[in-house]
């Protein structure tokens, strides 16, 4: 295997692939990137057996072959080479030689045939989704995913597709983020899949702005997304995601409208003196049209702030985790935030006043 390539042609696809490769691996070869060269196209593959990325780069000249090399060392070398430089790479006697100007590097290699296969399965569903639609769906829900929860099905994001709609849902048991987007030519039979946290984070990182559609293929145990220059694949989480439709509060009798910037600023300031572990802030909305936010900590320090609001219904007195409220407010694009409560105020529905596609539910906490 031998080829010549410009630094810039290889750097971007290499950076994309290295994102899924863990620093510490039980199998040494999983710390490597697989390089395959044929017909003037270099294919780079990285995987941790849960997520796989495949990218391509055009080479200037070369001899076909395949090899695996340490991914992060390879990336560090290429990142530090001079800009717009031309690099010669060659595999010699179990060493991968990188030569650029007066610089020369020898990397150790492992056989390409030992690189593990990623079992993606046979696709059962294929659907084209606008790139910006999928990007927005992930960005509006990604923050509410659980991390290392014993309820393994929460450690990911639910994608719910049917003939007319794409829905993205995430929850950590204390809050739930929901986003829906109309879909053309979706699957006739509805399909729900749970994509693991790492896969969602990587997919969101790879998605750029634009209207070009991406192709989603769903197999029984895996998801594949063709992004054009990058092919993404991830194993799915087996299990049943909670019925999010049942979680949506009904009979909302108290509705509060508050100016977003004022609400966000007050929450941020008051939470400074909240309990560092629980981040609890109490919210009291009076029928006179004022909201009082209060916080205190074990050192008996206190903070409170008042904001003018519009209230429809009776007053509300409830406590929340300030971080959860701020996450929701940061994802509201309109100038006002809508907070809706049931009669018992056992949950709060947070909505964008202008865009009903995004909804956020947060459970109260005792203070």
From TrEMBL:
<keyword id="KW-0235">DNA replication</keyword>
<comment type="function">
    <text>Confers DNA tethering and processivity to DNA polymerases and other proteins. Acts as a clamp, forming a ring around DNA (a reaction catalyzed by the clamp-loading complex) which diffuses in an ATP-independent manner freely and bidirectionally along dsDNA. Initially characterized for its ability to contact the catalytic subunit of DNA polymerase III (Pol III), a complex, multichain enzyme responsible for most of the replicative synthesis in bacteria; Pol III exhibits 3'-5' exonuclease proofreading activity.</text>
</comment>
<feature type="domain" description="DNA polymerase III beta sliding clamp N-terminal">
    <location>
        <begin position="1"/>
        <end position="117"/>
    </location>
</feature>
<comment type="subunit">
    <text>Forms a ring-shaped head-to-tail homodimer around DNA.</text>
</comment>
<comment type="similarity">
    <text>Belongs to the beta sliding clamp family.</text>
</comment>
<keyword id="KW-0963">Cytoplasm</keyword>
<protein>
    <recommendedName>
        <fullName>Beta sliding clamp</fullName>
    </recommendedName>
</protein>
<dbReference type="Pfam" id="PF02767">
    <property type="entry name" value="DNA_pol3_beta_2"/>
</dbReference>
<keyword id="KW-0238">DNA-binding</keyword>
<keyword id="KW-0239">DNA-directed DNA polymerase</keyword>
<dbReference type="InterPro" id="IPR022637">
    <property type="entry name" value="DNA_polIII_beta_cen"/>
</dbReference>
<keyword id="KW-0808">Transferase</keyword>
<feature type="domain" description="DNA polymerase III beta sliding clamp C-terminal">
    <location>
        <begin position="246"/>
        <end position="366"/>
    </location>
</feature>
<dbReference type="Pfam" id="PF02768">
    <property type="entry name" value="DNA_pol3_beta_3"/>
</dbReference>
<feature type="domain" description="DNA polymerase III beta sliding clamp central">
    <location>
        <begin position="129"/>
        <end position="243"/>
    </location>
</feature>
<dbReference type="InterPro" id="IPR022634">
    <property type="entry name" value="DNA_polIII_beta_N"/>
</dbReference>
<dbReference type="Pfam" id="PF00712">
    <property type="entry name" value="DNA_pol3_beta"/>
</dbReference>
<dbReference type="InterPro" id="IPR046938">
    <property type="entry name" value="DNA_clamp_sf"/>
</dbReference>
<dbReference type="InterPro" id="IPR022635">
    <property type="entry name" value="DNA_polIII_beta_C"/>
</dbReference>
<dbReference type="InterPro" id="IPR001001">
    <property type="entry name" value="DNA_polIII_beta"/>
</dbReference>
<keyword id="KW-0548">Nucleotidyltransferase</keyword>
């Amino acid at each position: 295997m031998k080829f010549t390539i410009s630094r810039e042609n290889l750097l971007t696809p290499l950076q994309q692939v290295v994102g899924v490769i863990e620093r510490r691996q039980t199998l040494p070869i999983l710390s490597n990137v697989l390089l395959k060269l044929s017909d003037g196209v270099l294919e780079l593959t990285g995987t941790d057996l849960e997520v796989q990325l495949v990218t391509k780069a055009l080479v200037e000249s070369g001899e076909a072959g395949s090899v695996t090399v340490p991914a992060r060392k390879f990336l560090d070398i290429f990142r530090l080479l001079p800009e717009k430089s031309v690099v010669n790479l060659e595999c010699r006697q179990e060493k991968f030689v990188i030569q650029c100007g007066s610089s020369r590097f020898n990397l150790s290699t492992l056989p390409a045939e030992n690189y593990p296969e990623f079992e993606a399965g046979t696709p059962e569903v294929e659907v084209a989704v606008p790139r910006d639609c999928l990007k927005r769906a992930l960005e509006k829900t990604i923050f509410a995913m659980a991390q290392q929860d014993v309820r393994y099905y929460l450690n990911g994001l639910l994608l719910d597709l049917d003939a007319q709609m794409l829905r993205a849902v995430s929850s950590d048991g204390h809050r739930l983020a929901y986003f829906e987007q109309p879909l053309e030519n979706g699957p006739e039979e509805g399909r729900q899949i749970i994509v693991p946290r790492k896969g969602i984070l990587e997919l969101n990182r790879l998605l750029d702005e634009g209207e070009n559609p991406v192709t989603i293929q769903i197999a029984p145990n895996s998801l594949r997304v063709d992004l054009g220059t990058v092919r993404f694949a991830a194993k799915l989480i087996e299990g049943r995601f909670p019925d999010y439709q049942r979680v949506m509060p009904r009979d909302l009798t108290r509705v509060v409208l508050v100016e977003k910037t004022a609400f966000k600023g007050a929450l941020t300031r008051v939470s400074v003196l909240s309990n560092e572990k629980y981040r609890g802030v109490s919210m009291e909305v009076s029928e006179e049209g004022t909201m009082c936010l209060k916080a205190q900590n074990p050192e008996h320090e206190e903070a409170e702030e008042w904001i003018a609001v519009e209230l429809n219904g009776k007053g509300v007195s409830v406590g929340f985790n300030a971080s959860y409220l701020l996450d929701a407010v940061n994802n509201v694009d309109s100038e006002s935030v809508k907070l809706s409560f049931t009669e018992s105020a056992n949950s709060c529905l947070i909505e964008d006043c202008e865009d009903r596609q995004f909804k956020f539910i947060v459970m109260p906490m005792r203070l």
